[in-house]
Specification:
Radius of gyration: 20 Å
CATH class of the largest domain: Alpha Beta
Oligomer: single chain
Strand order of the largest sheet: 3-5-4-10-11-12-9-13
Structural class: alpha/beta
Strand content: 25-35%
CATH superfamily of the largest domain: FAD/NAD(P)-binding domain
Number of strands: 17
Distance between the termini: 41 Å
Number of domains: 3
Number of helices: 8
CATH architecture of the largest domain: 3-Layer(bba) Sandwich
Amino acid sequence: MSKVHGVRPPLVVIGAGPVGLLAALRARQLDLPVEILTNRLPVVQDPCWLEAIPAQMIALLVEFGLHPRLLGVDRTHGRRLTQWRSLEVNADEAPPSAHVSRPALELALLGLATRSGVCIRAVGSSVPAEIAGAIDSGSLILDSSGRAALSARYIVRPEIPLVCRTFTQVAKAGRDLDGFAIAAGPQGYVYRLSNAQHSTLGVVGHGSLLRGDSDKVVENIRSFAPWIVTGIDPERLAPGPAGAASLQWCEAAQGGIQPIGDARVARDALASQGLAIGISDALRAVAGAAANVKIDLGAPEPQLTQHRLRIGELIAESTFASTPQWRGYLDFLRDHAPIVEGTP
């Protein structure tokens, strides 16, 4: 039997990324009324970039009605190429992953949500006011606004966050590296992943490693890891999303709001399973809403401690660990000397 707003307050989801859209879709499967508030919707013009997710997440996406090939996935990858402690390149087995087109995933989920009857409202800069109204109405609110963490009273982040730039080109048959590849350089690191349709190059760090156009970036990478840009044509590289890539977390959310995904803990790009963890958060929270039980996702501190230690160990082993910017980040990870910033 369909529930109506007079019987159950509507579930309100902040953000229309994959985590928020999957939360709303699960709510509709459980016959819960749901509304998404967002400051933007995915569009076909969004630049393409790839994201690695655990292979088992593909089964969940199929359950929601998404065929892997729609997302550019033709196989899973179980190999990791690494140049980290030295100039030597090592090939190791890794947990199977799938490399999905993030814009294709968002557009496909948006279509499913629309057809499922999810109320989606693009409210632009008025999201904070809409959040306040939802709190006053007694709605159940999930914040999946990503690193913006729109419901956070405080966000803990390093004083100088890492920056990630992405570039993507159409895949060339037989010319793309199989699996996930990562290499450390003087000022940061670069990673590469491919699927049937595209190949994405990500550059993370500070300083000159990230500066310039695609030609300059590839030239910088060739100076320390030429193998990772094999088959990359700078003239065919299209710039993708860029932004912070370091660890941050929500110290305190507004009352009545449950942050999920990156709005709760945005993990470091170096060892991130952020999308998979965010989706897990969303499904647990929605299951609780359906049962009229508030699901406590738990204090993030134990997971944060483990993540901080792991990232700190990886950075300390790298060739760029001695640079001033990375030493400052290591201090943040090891000593938990955070910069705490209030959000407007």
